[in-house]
Amino acid sequence: MLREELLDHADAFLRAWPVRGVDAETLVAVMEQGSPQRLEAGALLCAEGGGATAWYLLLEGALDATRGPDDQPLARIEAPALVGHMAVIDRSPRSASVRVAAPALLIAMDQRVHDRLVGDLGPLGAAHRRLLLASLSRQLCDGIEHLRDVVEGGEPGADAALLQRVERALRGWLPARRSR
Amino acid sequence: MILLCFPTRLPGPAPVSTSAAQALARLYLFQGVPRDELAAFVAALPEVVVARGQALCRQGEPAAQAWLVVEGCLVARLEAGGGELVLGDVREGEVAGEAALFLPGGRHAATVLATETARCLLLDPAALDGLRDNRALLALERHLLGCLARRVRATNLHVRKAALRPGEGLGQRLRRLWEGA
Fold first, then answer.
1. Which residues of chain B does A143 touch, with a Cβ-Cβ cutoff of 8 Å?
2. CB contact under 8 A, A160 and B162
3. Residues in chain A closer than 8 A to B159 (CB atoms)
4. Residue A29, C-beta contacts closer than 8 angstroms, at least 6 positions apart
5. Alpha carbon of B88 to those of A50, A109, A162, B176: distances in Å?
6. Contact B72, B29 (CB under 8 A)
7. What is the rounded CA–CA span in Å between residue A101 and residue A98?
8. Is A57's pLDDT higher than 50?
9. What is the distance of C-alpha A36 from the center of its chain?
């Protein structure tokens, strides 16, 4: 890919998802460590339960995340986005399947590149870590916001704080009871 | 805003808090970091001591800084629906309020309190910029990647557990908890 093209994508990414201390030029340098991929609609990017070999910067197009044997829809992911990094970070199985919903341009950062950059003391390594840390921080904030919405959703009995106390009490009590 | 934590010294090259550096050197995540770089890392960051029950930050406040726990323990709580949910503990070597370091203009998503007297290093984005080539910062960021991935998964689990399934009543919800579903 042309550098100018990458720079446009990096600009678009950082406008949508700003990362403190990372500018477009540095993001391009990170992107250049990965492999560009163009995938057609319907292509499987990763399968639930499978091992993670890469994470991806989605620069164009859209992806669908699904879970379970009946492919229950979880989310539509539109470009620009960062996808599939959690399983690479903690080397856990993929928690969902991801298919291309609209023709996609991605940069694949494979595990080997990730491992090298995550331990790199230079500016490239710092930008790589910050990109991932910003994405995880955002996911965590969004997750907590979602949790608050669920608790405050007004469903009868959806008192999560009460349920959490009950659950703890049950957990302390159940093992002894079950062992009888 | 009520100031509930007390800086015990100002940032700068001296004096070096050798005790904080020694405490951090014992942690697995800083193994392999040269002692002089760990000392420089500690020297660049103000230390705060927070008493049991006191808050380092409150949910909804602008996020301008984060805290690395040197000793003691913090807890992150979410105020919602008139109650409080415990999101998780923040222990030695872990960071609270990390969104401030990576996301411009964010707010603290949860309230963070000390569950016992805790010593922390104040992590300020500008101070960390000055430590870019420090291996202690690299070690901390690597460690934080794993911590945040775990927290995201734990929060997603909280959401799944807190949500009543369609048509489910409290009794069925408790039965599901009983059965570990």
1. 152, 155-156, 159
2. yes
3. 143, 146-147, 150
4. A123, A124, A127
5. 28, 31, 16, 22
6. no
7. 9
8. yes
9. 18
Length of chain B equals 181
Residue type, B6: F
**Half-sphere exposure for B60 (CA within 13 Å, toward CB):** 5
Looking at chain A, which runs of residues are DSSP E strands?
35-39, 44-46, 54-67, 72-78, 81-83, 97-110
Give the gap in angstroms from C-alpha A94 to the nearest C-alpha of chain B: 12
Q: Kindly tell me if the per-residue pLDDT of A103 is higher than 90.
A: yes
Please report, as a single letter, which amino acid is at residue A134. A
Q: Is ipTM strictly over 0.90?
A: no
For A21, the closest of B84, B129, B149 (CB atoms) is: B129
pTM of the model: 0.84
Q: What would the two tokens of residue A68 be?
A: 């379970």
Q: Do residue A129 and residue B142 have CB atoms under 8 angstroms apart?
A: yes
Q: What is the pLDDT of residues B94-138, one digit of tens each?
A: 999 999 999 998 899 999 999 999 999 999 999 999 999 999 999
Average the pLDDT over A14-27 and give the result: 96
Report residue B172 as tokens: 């069925």
